[in-house]
Amino acid sequence: MRYLPLTDADRREMLGVIGAETIDDLFADVPEAARLSGPIEGLPNHASEIAVERQLRALAGRNLVAGEGPFFLGAGAYRHHVPASVDHLIQRGEFLTSYTPYQPEIAQGTLQALFEFQTQVARLYGCDVANASMYDGSTAAWEAIVMARRITRRGKALLSAGLHPHYVSVATTMAKFTGDVLETSIPDLTDGAPGNDLDRLIAAIDGDTSCVVVQNPNILGHVADLSELAARAHEKGALLIAVVTEPVALGAIRSPGEMGADIVVGEGQSLGVGLQFGGPYVGLFATRDKYVRQMPGRLCGETVDASGQRGFVLTLSTREQHIRREKATSNICTNSGLCALAFSIHLSLLGEKGLRDLAALNHAKAVAAAERLVRVPGVELVNGTFFNEFTLRLSKEARPIVRALAEDGILGGVSLGRLYPGVAALANGLVVAVTETVEADDVDELAEALEEALA
Amino acid sequence: MSMNSEGRVTRPETAAPANVDSFTGNKGLMLEEALIFEIGASDRTGVDLPEAPKIASRLGGLEREAPISLPGLSEPEVVRHYTRLSRQNYAIDLGLFPLGSCTMKHNPRLNEKMARLPGFADIHPLQPQETVQGAYALIHLVGEWLVRLTGMAAVAMSPKAGAHGELCGLLAIRSALEARGDARKVILVPESAHGTNPATAAFCGYAVENIPATAEGRVDLEALKARLGPDVAGVMITNPNTCGLFERDMSAISDAVHAAGGFVYCDGANFNAIVGRVRPGDLGIDAMHINLHKTFSTPHGGGGPGSGPVVFSEALAPFAPLPFVEKDGDHYHLVEEETAGEHHADSFGRMVAFHGQMGMFTRAAAYMLSHGADGLRQVSGDAVLNANYVLRSLEDVLDAPFGASGPCMHEALFSDEGLAQGFTTLDVAKGLIDEGFHPMTMYFPLVVHGAMLVEPTETESKAALDQFIGALRSVAERAKAGDPALKAAPVHAPRRRLDETAAARKPVLVWKEPASGGSAAAA
């Protein structure tokens, strides 16, 4: 077996040192009845690299690859071009095969990269501090709600209608068990801007409200000014949690921190990570200085070593499960370190200029695509504002059309029927994302296919 | 061999002292590296993009005007920055990484290659199901292996890491109890458990109580039985446990918990010790997470990502989270909220957006298929053999508190008993760094004073183990003799011991422009 270095002679010699006859003897503490005498049945035996590669390539070949045709899916996961150097660097064994940096003297590479990541995220989000990553955007959003409960000692969270429905589902699942009260609603396609949703949220804030959770740009792609909502939440002693599923948007639109958000969380997958069928992704989590001791997850901080040289360590770990056990701020242990590194490398390559240019390109392509698509009979644009994703109202139900388009190799968007099954008022909605990877020809192809499908 | 300017071979001149400060702070190949904020510029970039066509903005007047202050680096600068940083890290690729309970085994590169196939890496989680049949097939394949290897009834693939898997298991337990109208409030956890166990139980609303251990390092069955009752929802047992011992009484524990109306959660962090030889389902377990980044070799990546699928018994299977993949002949479909219907109406719901850690499933699949049932049996055998070899090779020099409790499983536990006055486990750990090894896990489990938990894994050769044993023996002897030089260790690492107290007292968590405006090169 190519991954196992011991020879039979090694094993015999080592058993001699141990004073055992066979390896099986070392399992003497396992009750006889539970000890299997041979390989588990129903599973194949070991295989060569060639054989494994052949089997897995066959499975990969049964999928329609995003990059092989017109592609317009978003709704929480975006297809961006990732520079080649990102994947090269994260595959260096010293990053890929290292552990959580518990021994800082020999983990400065990971620690410095995390410190840089935290700073980048804080600046991108317009916040004071960020942590060293969470699993993904959806779990980060729930952790933010829990943190707001701890800070305000109140148990009611108001969730925007524009929050990603999977994020709402995750919070709803958790709240069933924790006793948190969630007020949720679903989007309204007749509302060209998210104003009604924000007004509803403002009206609902009361003395029991711990936080208001709002996504920007939201699930339909609307972009909104959250300043008023933040001010009104603060007046009532509640926090504003902003969720960002598309970090590239923050190269173009004002950050949630600048608009008054207290906690900003989101998905970082757009930068460096890729689509990967939904994971692993990287949750981003940032807040104000004054709340840092209430944060979940790992934090990397600057310090000095015994000879006075600058260095970095994991810090404030008295918040964490391995020290505080049942009193920890969260149970999170493993985070998304390598995805955070990929995010940070990609953002270092972009820099402010590159991020702004990338965001401008996304926006311009999306605007051009929207203008082209609304010329198709039976297609209307729902949005007043958007960044690189917008919602179309079709004259027919969107979900079967998406499926039909896929048969022709066009991945035309995410139907609201997929996201909100059974909601008739949303059934004709199609969420279309347009990133820098989309070309005008792709848009024409989608427009023509839609025209045919809606005829 | 090097030549001087006259073309003759040179020989080192020994007159100069060995330790001189250099102008740069570099020490030959050990290179200091500044922060990106000190290197980059906001108008520099490493990405060339076409110019955006002119359009009428649809941003609604929300343009970001204030500077974001993100430094940009050209590609050569980025490659050099991160390559230099990488060289300040220890890694499995460099040597034995004996972190107990963390399972730092070799990460096969075939796994990386497979995870990067566009058919897995470049597909969107919300693509129409007909376009991702291969992805569902892969998730189903990994799930089926896990079910067979554990002898359980069902598997939830979506949990993102071990602690998230614990959450999944406890939510299923709570759902099952609530379904029978039984609102139990207490979870019992052994003192030796990972911190995630009590944290998870608290995170989903349970009170946590400790179960004591016996003198030989196992769960005290009688004390556990005495505490069981109508308020106990379940127990969380790590098996093999964090002392590196198999819980011999596991079946009796399960029977007692079940008889009292509770459920048994097993922390499967140490499944690598028994994979292919023992099926937890045969021991009465109701739910267990499996860290794919431990047992199934997906890389740890400096702290993540992980993946924590959970296997369930018949009793808990109906409560498993959404979404999951079902196979119907040659066809696969996703069971989500809308399709859960009457067959899965008891599911406790969704705990994450999308389907879980696909990139980790691909890697784990490559690992499983490569080893096969026979190879996995050898994996656990060699992991346990290596750990026992370390235990018996060092127990004359280091105290092994449970050395008489029978063979250890995949990890060997030592304590600081017998070190000279004032010398600690930390000193031994830092001494190992100078020997070129990552230290063992320190001060865990909490049930042993100054614990040193050594997990070599099955992917170490005998020669590597012998070198490690020699190094740890040497450091242990120095700690027992009270060698003051050990207090200064490490001296050969990129940094000396770091001031963690100062870091926590006045946290500096983000980089700030130096007030003077001058450049702050790495000190």
Automatic annotation (TrEMBL), chain A:
Q: Which CDD domains match?
A: GDC-P
Query: What's a BP term from Gene Ontology annotated to this protein?
Result: glycine decarboxylation via glycine cleavage system
Known EC number: 1.4.4.2
Q: Where is the Glycine cleavage system P-protein N-terminal domain?
A: 1-449
- Give the record's family classification: Belongs to the GcvP family. N-terminal subunit subfamily.
Question: What function is annotated for this protein?
Answer: The glycine cleavage system catalyzes the degradation of glycine. The P protein binds the alpha-amino group of glycine through its pyridoxal phosphate cofactor; CO(2) is released and the remaining methylamine moiety is then transferred to the lipoamide cofactor of the H protein.
Q: How does it assemble?
A: The glycine cleavage system is composed of four proteins: P, T, L and H. In this organism, the P 'protein' is a heterodimer of two subunits.
Q: What is this protein called?
A: Probable glycine dehydrogenase (decarboxylating) subunit 1
Which gene name does the record give? Answer: gcvPA
TrEMBL record, chain B:
Give GO terms: molecular function aspect only: glycine binding; glycine dehydrogenase (decarboxylating) activity; pyridoxal phosphate binding
Q: Which residues form a coiled coil?
A: none
Pfam families for this protein: Aminotran_5 (PF00266), GcvP2_C (PF21478)
Keywords on record: Oxidoreductase, Pyridoxal phosphate
This enzyme catalyses: N(6)-[(R)-lipoyl]-L-lysyl-[glycine-cleavage complex H protein] + glycine + H(+) = N(6)-[(R)-S(8)-aminomethyldihydrolipoyl]-L-lysyl-[glycine-cleavage complex H protein] + CO2
Record field: transmembrane: none
Residue ranges of every copy of the Aminotransferase class V domain listed in the record: 181-301
The UniProt annotation puts the region (Disordered) at 1-23
Entry GO CC: cytosol; glycine cleavage complex
What EC numbers are recorded for this enzyme?
A: 1.4.4.2
**EC class (word):** oxidoreductase
Domain spans labelled Glycine dehydrogenase C-terminal: 382-479
Q: A Gene Ontology biological process annotation?
A: glycine decarboxylation via glycine cleavage system
Function, please?
Answer: The glycine cleavage system catalyzes the degradation of glycine. The P protein binds the alpha-amino group of glycine through its pyridoxal phosphate cofactor; CO(2) is released and the remaining methylamine moiety is then transferred to the lipoamide cofactor of the H protein.
NCBIfam families assigned: PRK04366.1 (NF003346)
Protein name per the record: glycine dehydrogenase (aminomethyl-transferring)
Q: Which organism is it from?
A: Sphingomonas oleivorans
